[in-house]
Amino acid sequence: MSESTTRHRRIILASGSPTRLKVLTDAGIDVVAIESGVSEDFGPVATQDAVLALARRKAMAVAAFSEDELVLGCDSLLDLDGETIGKPGTAEKAREIWKRLRGRCAILHTGHCLIDTSKDQGNGGINRVVSRVDSTLVRFSSPSGEEIDAYIASGEPLSLAGACSIEGLGAPFVEGIDGSSTNVLGVSLPLLRTMLAELGVSITDLWRQDRDSPGSVER
User: Fold this and answer.
1) Which one, of 169, 171, 172, 144, lies nearest residue 155 by Cα?
2) Over the stretch 93-102, which tens digit does the pLDDT of each residue have?
3) In the 8-state DSSP scheme, what is residue 126?
4) Where are the chain's structural domains?
5) Counting C-beta atoms within 10 Å of the first and last residue's C-beta, which end of the chain has fewer, N or C?
């Protein structure tokens, strides 16, 4: 795209996740976060289908009130032995999950839905939508019962998909990953770059001019 035709774009992140916002902000992307307010319940479907459906639900809810924006919805769930594991919510559930995870491998799936709500796209004003799933294999270490109890007592894992993350207090309990590291944090930057390209947008068009300023959150 020539310099004369390039215009600055920004992303509306249809999520209240501070981690997703930080991933995008740290990558220099101009982003505003707006919570979608939609239900995160999912039916008896495969994990990959669930994250894709939830990502679409979030993106479409926010896109309905957006104009000339790029709206991104994401959702992450862990797949362990074919079972979908979301946010535990309670200490009891988190402890149950971690007893199963230690010394094992599981797959973290993140659904992405990107909607271009531009009115000048030459297609009668119909939003263009790209949806994809990225998957990362996570290899867990074997924390002791005391370590698991301390981690759960911190409260950190209660609101994390699969009760885990590769950063924060739980980072020492993850031995490694195979795949995108940012995918485990809730948004795969390599996949986002590809999705943007499908809509004719370069990820560099989203870079903030002042990359020292943080992203913002709107309610």
Assistant:
1) 169
2) 999 999 999 9
3) P
4) 11-212
5) C
Q: Which class is domain 11-212?
A: alpha beta
At 54 the pLDDT is: 96
Q: Which positions ≥6 away from 102 have C-beta within 8 Å?
A: 140, 141, 142, 143, 148, 173
Encoded tokens for 215 = 């992203």
Per DSSP, 172 falls in state G
Active-site residues, by number, are 75
Q: Is 61:38 a contact under the CB 8 Å cutoff?
A: yes
Question: 204-213 burial string, b = 16+ CB within 10 Å, else e?
Answer: ebbebeeeee
* Rounded percentage of the chain residues whose pLDDT exceeds 90: 78
Beta strand extents in the chain (DSSP E only): 11-13, 31-34, 70-80, 83-85, 105-116, 128-140, 174-178, 216-218
